[in-house]
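Changelog note: in this version the structure field was regenerated for every chain. One regenerated record is shown below for reference.
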Amino acid sequence: MQDLRSEQPPRAAIQEMVHQGERAPQFTLVDTDKKPHSLSEFTKANKVTVLAFFPGAFTGVCTKEMCTFRDSLAELERVPAHVVAISVNDPWSNKGFSEHNRLNFPILSDYNREVIKQFNIIHENFGGLKGYTAAKRSVFVLDSNGVITYAWVSDDPGKEPVYEDVKRAAAKTA
């Protein structure tokens, strides 16, 4: 009988998700108008940054999640914090999603899936579609230096974050 453990990659080759206490990977992505924005632009704004990765625009749970962040924005701005959402959808789909739901925060497009790889929050074969990769539903709270003070990642795309935990983490980070 063959030992299957020998076929696993060495520990050093396995990329781990970013963790609380680590600096978030730097990136530049385009918004719904195809304008580039880098993470440092958001973290240097003297606000706490709530990065919310979602699997797909116009899906039920993602719509509910983004609308909950929209409805919580006034409370988060008092922290002061702002929300930046990221999906693998193209900028045009994100724009339609944002306009349809009257979202009042930027949605960035990781259409090349580079940032979800950097954060190691890759959901492969999403929705049962072989080869289709989306972001795992994830929320990261960052301080003004880009250090992660809170991380929540779900392997279940139907599970939403505990929004009160996100708000508490943002307030504690401020």
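Spot check on this record: Strands lie at 28-30, 36-38, 48-53, 81-87, 107-109, 122-123, 134-135, 138-142, 148-153. The helical segments are 39-43, 60-77, 91-100, 114-119, 163-173.
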